[in-house]
Design goal:
Low-confidence stretches: none
Strand content: 15-25%
Number of helices: 4
Strand order of the largest sheet: 3-4-5
Mean pLDDT: 84
Distance between the termini: 63 Å
Number of strands: 7
Oligomer: single chain
Helix content: 25-40%
Length: 161
C-alpha cells in the first residue's frame, strides 16, 4: 500500500441520510463514496446525500457541453453583430447593444424550410427580404413576428455599436 492508499483508508466514507429513500430532490447534494478497488486502482462513486440517487456522469458531461456551446455562441454573436455579452449575469438578454438587446437561442439543425424558401424567393433587388410569421388563436388578436436573415440585417444596418 502506498501513502495515498493509507490516507484514503483513513478518510470517512460518506453515508446517505437515513430514511431518505424515495425522496425526490429539487437540488442534489452530491457526495463521493469509496467504491473499493478495481484492477488495483481505488475508485469512487458519487451519489446524492438526500435521495441516494447515483450521479450519471454522461448526463453531467452532456449538460456541461451544451452550456459551453451556448456561452461560446453568445460571445460570437456579440463580436459579429455588436454589443456586449451579458448572459453570464442571468438576465433575460444575452447581448446588450446600443439599440438592441438580444436573447441568443442556438439550434443544431437547419432553419425551417418555410423561412428559407420565402426569404430566398425575395432575394432579387436592393431591399432586405423579411418574413412575417403570424400566429392566430381564437379570441385573441394576431401575434406577428418578423424574420430576417442576420447577414442581410447586418449588411443593411451594420453592427449595434
Amino acid at each position: 500500500m502506498t501513502d495515498l492508499d493509507e490516507l484514503l483508508d483513513k478518510q470517512p466514507i460518506a453515508e446517505p441520510l437515513t430514511g431518505a429513500k424515495g425522496k425526490v430532490c429539487t437540488r442534489h447534494d452530491w457526495v463521493k463514496a469509496d467504491g473499493g478497488y478495481q484492477g488495483g486502482t481505488r475508485t469512487f462513486v458519487e451519489f446524492c446525500r438526500r435521495c441516494q440517487k447515483p450521479k450519471d456522469l454522461v448526463r453531467s458531461k452532456r449538460g456541461a457541453t451544451s452550456r459551453s456551446y451556448g456561452n461560446r455562441a453568445e460571445l460570437k454573436v456579440a463580436r459579429k453583430y455588436g454589443g456586449e455579452k451579458v448572459g453570464q449575469y442571468g438576465g433575460p438578454a444575452d447581448v446588450m447593444g446600443k439599440d438592441f438587446q438580444t436573447q441568443v437561442k442556438t439550434h443544431r439543425r437547419r432553419p425551417p424550410t418555410e423561412w428559407t424558401t420565402a426569404i430566398n424567393a425575395m432575394r432579387e433587388g436592393n431591399r432586405i427580404p423579411r418574413l412575417l410569421v403570424r400566429f392566430v388563436q381564437a379570441g385573441l388578436p394576431p401575434d406577428d413576428w418578423f424574420v430576417f436573415r442576420a447577414e442581410d440585417f447586418l449588411a443593411w444596418f451594420g453592427k449595434d455599436e
